[in-house]
Hints:
Order of helices and strands of chain B: HHHHHH
Number of helices of chain B: 6
Oligomer: heterodimer
Order of helices and strands of chain A: HH
Shape of chain B: elongated
Low-confidence stretches of chain B: none
Largest interface: A-B, 24 and 32 residues
Amino acid sequence: MTDLPPSSDASAAGVGPGRGAAPSTPRWVKVSGIIAGVLVLAFLVMHVAGGGMAGHH
Amino acid sequence: MALTPRLRKLALAAHVTSSVGWFGAVAVFLALALAGLTSKDGAMVRAAYLVMGLTGWFVIVPLCFASLLTGIALSLGTSWGLFRYYWVLAKLLMTVPATLVLLAHMQPIDRMASVAESASLSGADLHGLRIQLVVQAAAALVVLLVATVLSVYKPKGMTRYGWRRQNEQRTASAAGLVEVTSA
């Protein structure tokens, strides 16, 4: 957060200069979301099935 | 509420300092967890877990909260917002669970520290817990590295909420301009 977002932010929004269309979700967000989901699932499975919660008891 | 440039610089300095400090402290924590897991020297293992207990409560937890709070203050106090850009939202969605997981896992860290305090540990004692500490520290380091990369690169992408807010602000400023020119 060293600098502020550009005031005219059509490029950052991932859309053209018009105001009509809502911005589409960037590819990096979709890919990261899938990876994060898989990691969270793996974490939960390890904790529930693998006895990883041993330290909590 | 928008921060003044001076306050923004101050909040930014606090955020960078606490975030980098958090990263460094977790790196040290990982080194200690590895030493505790692999060292054959009983005194070294004992010292590692005692220091981990102290580092956890007096360095990592305070830096974690400082980083989270200064990050939220910076987001809300600037036009980045907290939910307007995907990279800011992604950092929030990583930092909040990381904070909760850290707090939840302070209990096993305390347990290891108290065992180390009362007796010397052999290689087989609490082996699962010792592996768990290594894995958690490594995972935390990866999360903090990703958050740092996001802060530096600021990948493009505005959320639907951010896009709506931007349109509202544009409409409001255009209406203000029309009023000024017609007056």
